[in-house]
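Re-running the complex after MR caught last week's input typo. The corrected sequence lines follow. Everything else is unchanged.
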Amino acid sequence: MQVDGARLMQLFLQSGGTKERDIACEQRCNRDPGSSLTASAKSIFRLLAEGNPSTRPQLGEVLNLSRPTMSAAMGELEQLGLVAKIGEVQGLIGRKAAIYRPGPQAGHVIAIDAGSTHVRLRVSTIDRRLLHSRVYRLPASQLLLGEEISRAVADEVSATLAETDDGWGPLRMIGIAVPSRVVGPQGDQNATRQEEIFSRFEPPADVPVVLENNVNCAAVAERSNGAAKDAETFAYVQIGLKIGMGVMLGGRLLRGRNGAAGEIGHLAFPMADGSRPIPGEIERYMGTEAFMQRVLATWPDSADSQPADAADLMARAGEGCATALAHVTRHAEDIGAIVASCVSVLDPGLVVLGGGLGGSSLLLPTVSDVANRLSYPVEVRTSTLGQDATVLGIEKLTCEQTVDLLLGERRD
Amino acid sequence: MQVDGARLMQLFLQSGGTKERDIACEQRCNRDPGSSLTASAKSIFRLLAEGNPSTRPQLGEVLNLSRPTMSAAMGELEQLGLVAKIGEVQGLIGRKAAIYRPGPQAGHVIAIDAGSTHVRLRVSTIDRRLLHSRVYRLPASQLLLGEEISRAVADEVSATLAETDDGWGPLRMIGIAVPSRVVGPQGDQNATRQEEIFSRFEPPADVPVVLENNVNCAAVAERSNGAAKDAETFAYVQIGLKIGMGVMLGGRLLRGRNGAAGEIGHLAFPMADGSRPIPGEIERYMGTEAFMQRVLATWPDSADSQPADAADLMARAGEGCATALAHVTRHAEDIGAIVASCVSVLDPGLVVLGGGLGGSSLLLPTVSDVANRLSYPVEVRTSTLGQDATVLGIEKLTCEQTVDLLLGERRD
DNA sequence: ATTTTTTTGTTAACTTGCCTAACATAATAA
DNA sequence: TTATTATGTTAGGCAAGTTAACAAAAAAAT
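Corrected-run output:
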């Protein structure tokens, strides 16, 4: 079932309309129950949605709200079921304080990493308490087959819906991380395969769907759960089979006109006096496959047997094999050069390295040295998240979108 | 007179403090007279500061304010002298409407382009009505001598202050565009020469100074007066003696941690299989000097005499000289490759070319073709502003900062 | 010339959303 | 049992907006 352009737009833009006819009101009011809350109630809900259950005094302190205002706001929120009291805490002295977190009517989201080897799915509340999760490994023979991924997503979502618990509240949104550019209405719609995800998967009616590029999702995860927890601005550079970057500026993803911001696989390369760049060449050159070809081409017969794959090479380098280490270091220099180019454009102050190869801490010193030598001061860190990075990122983004939706404050 | 670090910080941060002691209150209240205005009055002032004199109905329409609110807000603003009635307009029917613009107490700013060949100065109201302007051409022998530029700035400012008219209202701020990185407090302070501007120039006491990189200023000007009038997001790429870029994202400049965002003179280059990049090499390679060396090295004896300089080369290319055109086109290919790298990182959708060489429309087709072939869809335009771009940009930035200051809303 | 219509601007009364001050409640400490 | 302290509610006030009604000033209609 192919989802056409109009339908996809609808998925993107759902819930925006305030000028719809009255007949849709009941639906809409159920979809964004908090759109008529006071500003203070909204800010309280936003804070609780971050994931820390809090007492009224704590919330009031952070948000600079008086106790009467807290009282009124919590009244509004509790009435709608958007927050719930989950316990009490006793200080050293004085009356106990009630502890709140988002309530059942805040509902839950489904976040899906629709990767080419795995489909990972997490169901969670909007304050990111995990309710359910599944992982489906795609048969290796079907790598890169968009339709098979779509079918796997459809299956996993069906299975999830069958197990839905009443206590989870309503399903508010589905977020899907895809390994392609994600383009808004005014961008270039050609040459993106974002619709393929819907070729076999039809999302439940009335549940908005958000799509995001998988590298961007990993960047979001690094910020919310990983190596960039303290940073508002940084770049996440992924080096593996392919290369890509996710850019976070002031806590917001940089997407670009065509959803192509961070597509460093298209940096001009080769780039030197007398040479002419080839489109996408740097992605091929830096990718694991070409890298291993170069490694094997010069691997000495005298030494150990040839490394089986990139992971094997990295392992041997880590064990002290000089030949392996030389190759890894050479690759790290190339990565450092790419990082330097990104720093020259963005000057993010922090770069997090991730991906199949980039995640190795062996690369770190060389990448950092080269980048800092070529460009401007930048801290380089290695990703602390494993293969869950992408699904955690799309979960975070979906929760944020859901909060915006519930509060009637569309952000982007 | 060297301005030390503490003084510079003070210059940057002036007007922020709300926790100063009461003795400073009178001064402060004179400095940000509008800090106690209602939100609606502030938004009205902001709109008028954009430069379009407007009637109350027009303002109310745009800002969604009722007539009584307009009445109250205009009352506040007129009382403070922040707006003034400058006339009336008669519609087809009905009562005349008064036309307003920022009033005398809104004051004026001095904007300075402290370039290495010229010092350009504009005095204008915060709605950018030109009050006075001067240009000083530095003696060629003193190119790049920071102290001479500083002295020229000091002289021009003195001359301006001497000519100040009472009708201009108070001097609110001085903005200076400098050809170096401009670094905030948490960035890398080394290797920027931003303080040199103060070596011979001491700004009047109590007048805040804002510094900004000159390429960033040109980008701002392209947005407010030039080729990117309709764009919120674009990159301005300057190609001349040196190369640089200014990045505008959603109407805001991207500065980076160390003020080095857009410093594409540090893109990794040469970058090819087997080569290692050299810091700053692409700036040398792309700069006019190295470019002309390559041109002259292969210039055929049989043809016309060698071109005298880059401008001469461009002129001959424009007249149809095949040799010159071939060189220009080759250079345009290199520029296209650089643009492609920037597009791969930012995907801005629009790139404006400027600078001594970049401003030539001869380059446009090739740059556009190469960039679009190597990377993602991007429109390429040629700058429409001449040498005034930088001073217009710093003027715009200074006016924006002044409005923020007057309204007590520090933005960045 | 007078009345009507239309737009602009003001006045009056109300609403919202926050605040402070005072009071009520529930816990520990004395 | 009383004092102290933190939490939560009630009462009353204020700032900044709203709508409704009225006043003023202009062209259009009578």
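None of the earlier attempt is carried over here. Residues 55-57, 67-68, 70-71, 91-98 of chain B lie near DNA strand C (CB under 10 Å from a C1'). The longest strand of chain B covers residues 118-125.
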